[in-house]
Amino acid sequence: MKRIYYLLAISLVVFNVACKKQTETNNNQGTTTTTVIPNGKPLPAGVSDGANFINSGTSVVFDLYAPGKTSVSVIGEFNNWQPTAMNETPDGNNWWIEIDNITPATEYAYQYLIDGTLKVADPYTHEILDPANDPYIPASVYPNLKPYPNGQTGIVSTFQASPAPYTWQVTNFTRPAPKNLMIYELLVRDFVATHSYQTLKDTLNYLANLRVNAIELMPVNEFEGNDSWGYNPNFMLALDKYYGTHNAYKAFVDACHARGIAVIQDIVLEDQFGSSPMAQMYWNASASQPAANNPWFDQTTTHPDGVGYQLNHQSAATVYYTENVMKYWMQEYHIDGYRFDEAEGYTQTNTTTESAWANYDASRVAIWTNYITYMKSLDPAMYIILEDFAVNSETSVMANQGAMVWTNLSGPASQATMGYPNPSWDLSGLFYNGYGFSVPYNLVAYWESHDQERTMFDNETYGNSSGSYNVTNIPTALAREQAAAAFLISSPGPKMIWQFEELGYDISINQNGRTGDKPILWNYNTDVNRKALYNVYAKMIKMKIKNPVFASTNFTYTLFGPVKNVQLLDPTANVEIIGNFDVVNQPGFITFPSTGTWYDNVTGTSINITSVNYTLTLAPGEYHIYSNTPLNF
What we know:
The chain is α+β, with helices and mostly antiparallel strands. Helices cover 21% and strands 24% of the residues. The longest helix has 19 residues, at 528-546.
């Protein structure tokens, strides 16, 4: 999303004797220093950032990366919130302490007290308690939420050595191939009224019947407030409680996998917001920005779309932290991929305009090459989706390394469905070959996303007309949406649809403010015209997945005029797609690859082609999908 806020978290492994600790790439945050602390104490073997559990969970070792601090103590329910001084490591970078007599099944609240005055939660915590927002989380969503500790202030972190376990039911999930990937992007808050993983899990039959094979969740890690898109992150390793418990989220992922649906998390690692402990630990209060010695953050944002405080991905400390976040969600929650918000912002090159920001940036390429390589080393089949709208010469490098790149076709799609003949209704961006990609299935095209106006709103508000044919008429607009869906889904490679796009959702993105709550209109599912659109989406997705021709790399297309057509050739079948996006009748011309019987997969009829050059008259919004052999769906 260009741009608003973000997501993430961290993981648990076993070390020494019954010791659990948070997963890390290594214990070196990359800071080089000649400082030697005379009385420094090295970290115990196997200890990493955050809370580490030893002695069968009866002891906890805290580790905080805080170079340059004078003193650090831990305070919490285990020491009656009285400071217990932590040991400084010989290099002056980390502070640690072992606390004994812990009850493994008990959840404890704690904070760090830095230099005697600053209290912060643990950046590596998996759960926080927030006195400002937790009271508004219903028990139906998060049962038995730990009360905020009396007498304390600010956000506190928690730990539990032996939380309630989750037993995974699906342990051998096979992810859909990128060439067949149909992603459904949703915001839990605006998809189900309970804003809970449990209810979301209960809707999976609806999505399975739509035939989507991947769900992309907008950020689910902790963010500021409850009612949010989630692009204002503060704790990247903690699951946001507003949507449910850790095990409820795992059960949702598990249920998706049982239906053949992958789960992709939208994640924000370009920046964080002011309640992040990493920002607070090194803060310039007079300038209201991160201090110059902050190990993770830039003092000011380097690009024109900044909102929070920008992470410096050329800092070794930031790389270390980011890779730990990436690993955590992959391993702890069994997710199948990430969509990285504002991937274009991973840069230290200062720019002031959108065009300069989009120019080829070798440093940004190097940053992403490192992260892509790292994630693929953990899981070669992991989906890596970048919101990167830089020049093609840059995005093609990432795509050719195995990442998928977002391409926003909201403008062309809206112009086409509204019926305005001008150059901006060109849908050629559906095809990867125009971007310089040498691999065919690394372009995620979409008409709508969380960040774009709904095409049906544009149709109903601004649609073109001619005589009695008027796009602002809802049934007419919905019929045109069917034609648009046919072109979107039939083009080779992964595609994405936004929640309720398949029902012609027509509430403006700006209603109740851009990021504000939107009406959840499940009643649209009972409207005959909207249900017809849903059925077209389901049929097209099924057709795409079941017929190899829709993954063909042998294609031609003409998508800039009022009549748009695509030809796909494959040994299994040949397909011709044609549609009229004007508001008046238009002649259509198809050069079929062969004569003979061609099947119309829209009307269920067939035509006999005696000459490969074929002409037909298309009414406004009329479309056809012809094949030389019956298709599977």
